[in-house]
Every structure is written in C-alpha cells, then in structure tokens.
C-alpha cells in the first residue's frame, strides 16, 4: 500500500548548490551574504520595514517579548488554540496569559471578545493567523491604539498571505514567522524571522539578537569597540540555514501557486461531502488572501474524528489533528486564564482534521485522500 505522508519539507532544487557555496565561503555563522539577501528580500518583496533572521519563530517571539519589556504581572491576550511557543515567549518574562475564544469560521482569535479581556495590566495582544488566514487586523489594531497596547503578530503560518491588501506581518508593532520544515518555506528544518514594523525597536532588536552586545554597531563603525549593553541571547540564524532558505525564496511564487492549486483541488473535490453535511471545510473570508498552509476539514465530533483518522491511516494516509487548547493544559492553567466562555475553542478543535498538503503533492495522491474520505462517509 502506498503511504501518503502529512507533510514533505519543501525543496526548490537549488538547496545543495547554495549550501556548497556557503561552505566554500567559510562564512557559516549568522549575518553572512545569504542572510543579508534573505532579509533584504522580505523588505523588498513583502514590504516589511525591517527583518531579522532567527533560529526559530519561537526565538523571534522571545525577542519581541523582551523588546516590549514584558515584566512580572503583565497580561498578554492571545487565543488558546495555538502552539505553545506563542505563550511561552511571554511566560518566560513573567507574563500572565489571558486566553480568548476563537471564531468558528477561521479558528482565529475572536476580535469581538478582546476588548472585554483588557485590564489595566494588559500589555499586548498576540493574534495568531491560523493556517495563513488573517485575523481581523483592522479591529485589533484599533483596539490596541485605543488602549495603548502592543500588537505582536504570530505569523508562523502566514508567509505570503494577506489581510485585505496588506501582507500579514506588516500590521503589528512586531511580527514573527516560522521556517520550520512543516511550513510553506523552510531554512533546513528550523528557522524564523522577526519583523520590526515599529522603528523604535530596530536598534535594540539587533543588540538582543547579538547576545546583548552592540557588535553590529561596531562592525558598521558606529562605536570604537563592542561590549555587553543589554540582555540578549544567541538569536542569529546560521549562514547555512539562510542559504537553504534563499533557494526557496527565489521560487516563492512558484511554491505559493502550487500549494494554492493543491488547496483548491481539495476544496472542489470535497464539496459534495459539504453539500451533504458530512463535513465542513475551511472557507477563508473573501478579503483574506491565504497561502494554502493548511487544508482542514471538520467532522461532527471527536468520536467521528478518531474513527476517520483511523480509517485514513489504514488506507495509508497520514492525517493529523492540531493543537490541544493551551488553557486546558497543566501549564495553561498555571500561567494563564480563559476569559469568558469557551464556546468554540475546545469544540471546534476536537472536530478538526488536517489533510496532507505540500509543495509538489500529486493529484493522484490527493485523489486517494478524497476518495478515502468519501468512502468513509458514503459506504
């Protein structure tokens, strides 16, 4: 029986060439030629004010938490339906996490519930763009400006996606992206990007990323010698990772178009099951330009999900659920609280199944996935 994995890391075909080029240059640490090309690409092609490559999206979020000066007792609002790194970055600085319910249609934070969760201790809002579908950034930025709060976009899944006419990652004061091997673009398995839209954070971000030193200023001739001037850590992406990433950025549009085509195939071929009320499928709002990071379906309940995933596994298909809501975890209870009612977070997450999708997936594989799901419900 042919096995269909859930994910295959993207490969453009030029990774080995650029890795060899990097090795021959004998510049393997961060901020090398490939790193600078990647960071310039994000500014030139996506309209970011400033971008800094990091070893992971987790590290980018950690830098963001330091930049906005999170301290013990501060509160940070975010959805519970997210990866643990979204919360960890702020908990590490002493913050209390305030979880807010999600929207059923997008699995994103419900923007209409945020204002009621704001207290005099609230420091930031962290919208998570689930599956590369944008949160309601106009409303969120309006609330943040009204209440003098920071917005940090967790755009781990959102590279090349837009809310209305603007790229996700350009709205918040700071944003974080992921280049993990499960994402649309990877820097060789792990990797991330910090986007700095608020210019007041540019200089300090460089220092924090360089272990708390002003090393970059020294290399630019701005100071006579560099020293320890702030808190920080080793937050640089290596040149080998950047070389791997560059090979994919060169084909960013090709990768994006191919994923959208695969997403559309599922959408069209699973529609009969939607019309017969067997499943629900993701339907991004018309004003959001998604990036086909995830194609998910929703079934009636957790029991049906378990049965369907088992059926798919027996047919050689590796499907997956996604997050266990953070507020229900041991540390979620310890470091956070859920504000208001959990009307959608737990119920909708229990119903969700992610289907195999990657750059280069074949239609025959997708057809096997679709046929298997139809067989489960119709036979």
Question: How would you explain this protein's 3D organization?
Answer:
By secondary structure, the chain is an alpha/beta fold. The chain folds into two domains: 15-249, Type I PLP-dependent aspartate aminotransferase-like (Major domain) (Aspartate Aminotransferase, domain 2, 3-Layer(aba) Sandwich); 252-378, Aspartate Aminotransferase, domain 1. Helix content is 39%, strand content 13%. It is built from 15 helices and 14 strands. The protein has helices at 15-25, 33-46, 57-67, 84-91, 114-117, 137-147, 202-209, 215-219, 239-249, 252-269, 271-275, 302-314, 330-335, 345-351, 363-378, and strands at residues 51-54, 75-79, 96-100, 122-125, 150-154, 162-163, 166-167, 174-178, 192-196, 280-281, 288-289, 296-298, 336-338, 352-354. The strands form three sheets. An eight-stranded mixed sheet has the order 1-9-8-5-4-2-3-13, with helices on both faces. A three-stranded antiparallel sheet has the order 7-6-11, with no helix packed on it. A three-stranded antiparallel sheet has the order 10-12-14. The chain is globular. The mean pLDDT is 96.
